[in-house]
Amino acid sequence: MTKYLISFPSAAMQVPANEMEAVSEDSHAAIRQAKEAGVYVFGGGIDESVPPVLVSADGTTAQGGYPWAPPINGGFAVFEVPTREEAIAWAARLARACRCDQELRVFGFDPES
Predict the structure, then answer these.
(1) What is the pLDDT of residue 22?
(2) Domain of 22, in residue numbers
(3) In this structure, are residues 13 and 74 in contact, taking their beta carbons and an 8 Å threshold?
(4) DSSP 74
(5) Residue 58 within any structural domain of the chain
(6) What is the CATH number of the domain that holds 102?
(7) Does the global pTM surpass 0.85?
(8) Using CA atoms, how far apart are residues 27 and 96, in angstroms rounded to an integer?
(9) What InterPro entries does UniProt report for this protein, alphabetically (predicted)?
């Protein structure tokens, strides 16, 4: 089976404040369904109140991520399903629940992971 990353950046969540409770309930329901189906690996949201730290090979650190890269934020989930079509179906469920489009990416297979 293949692992898929389903994600969205924070800016994609253009939801009125009065709908946020419903979004939370619906997204949690979709994740519960994925867990019941045995396809959910893990997920969550990036804690944007904690800035990233760039760690070098020698262990030194610098505040912030790569200065030339866009920031990583928003929410994500990793699913493991047998087909791309099934991954697309789960991404559509999450898009409905979160009220925003989801990006779907494939993890490359690494036998050591």
Answers:
(1) 96
(2) 2-47+72-106
(3) yes
(4) S
(5) no
(6) 3.30.70.1060
(7) yes
(8) 8
(9) Dimeric_a/b-barrel
Take residue 60 and report the two structure tokens written for it: 């030194």
For residue 8, tell me if it sits in a domain. yes
For residue 57, what are its two tokens?
């090979």
Cβ atoms 32, 26 nearer than 8 A: no
In the structure encoding, which two tokens stand for residue 26, read together? 């619906």
Decide if 40 contacts 90 (C-beta within 8 A): no
> Does 25 reside within a domain?
yes
Total domains in the chain come to: 1
Per-residue pLDDT of the chain (113 residues; tens, 9 = 90+): 999 999 999 999 999 999 999 999 999 999 999 999 999 999 999 999 999 999 999 999 999 999 999 999 999 999 999 999 999 999 999 999 999 999 999 999 888 87
Q: For Cα atoms 42, 48, 52, give the angle at the middle one, nearest 5 degrees.
A: 90
